[in-house]
Design goal:
With 214 residues, the chain is an alpha+beta fold. The chain is built from 5 helices and 12 strands. The protein has a domain of 137 residues: Umud Fragment, subunit A (Ribbon). The strands form 2 sheets. Strands 1, 2, 3, 4, 9, 10, 11 and 12 form an 8-stranded antiparallel beta sheet that branches. A 4-stranded antiparallel beta sheet has the order 7-6-5-8, with no helix packed on it. It starts with a helix and ends in a 41-residue tail after the last strand.
Length: 214
């Protein structure tokens, strides 16, 4: 009900002000709790960050008042996905050029500090549109994500992870993970790695492009 009442907020210039006031008055946590969505993790694509059987609470109002951020854990629902809904990491932002090469994820030619090498994935390149996001699995060897079904529009990001509810031994607030893009090199000898060469690989702007299951 709270989500339906406030669906218009967060759209258009100056529309973030209601959310600032809700937070200032201490009302936002109550509204977020009333509209929150509980989700059970069904597979190991986000392991070890999230394990099969974990129950999460997602904030469905999170993106009404602020933009999605790199490293957010998001609940995704969109046509062309291998499952009706997915839980993924947000790795690429609108307008960025995303590449998978040399066992790494690159953003505009700069390496993304991802926790582990990107193994078992074909090289690929995606130019994100002004409203598109690139999703990634924490367990890259088994997860199906934007490497397989392409980027998704903002409206596919239904909610942001808020709390890990159970098991009780793992209960904690979820703030995403730090995914930092390395600074631009000072010169040709900088550490961003060589520019991509050879075939451009897969380029996708349609969320339904090349949808496969890994």
């Amino acid at each position: 009900m709270a989500e339906r009442f406030l669906t218009g907020a967060g759209k258009g210039p100056g529309s973030a002000w209601p959310w600032r006031w809700l937070r200032r008055l201490g009302l936002y946590p109550l509204l977020a709790a009333l509209s929150a969505r509980k989700v059970r993790i069904a597979n190991s694509s986000m392991y070890p960050l999230l394990a099969p059987g974990d129950e999460l609470l997602f904030d469905r109002l999170a993106y009404q008042g602020e933009a999605p951020r790199r490293g957010d854990i998001v609940l995704v629902e969109w046509m062309g996905l291998p499952e009706p809904r997915l839980v993924k990491l947000l790795a690429g932002l609108p307008g960025e050029r995303i590449e998978v090469r040399q066992d790494r994820l690159w953003v505009d030619g700069r390496r993304l500090a991802f926790p582990q090498p990107i193994v078992g994935s074909l090289p690929g390149r995606w130019q994100l549109g002004p409203d598109e996001y690139f999703l990634f699995s924490h367990n890259v060897a088994v997860g199906s994500d934007s490497r397989h079904f392409g980027p998704v529009p903002r409206q596919a990001l239904r909610a942001r992870a808020w709390l890990l509810l159970s098991p009780a031994s793992r209960r904690r607030a979820l703030r995403g993970i730090p995914l930092e893009v390395e600074p631009a090199p000072a010169g040709p000898s900088g550490g961003a790695g060589p520019p991509a060469s050879g075939p451009p690989g897969r380029t996708a702007t349609d969320p339904g492009t090349s949808s496969t299951r890994v």
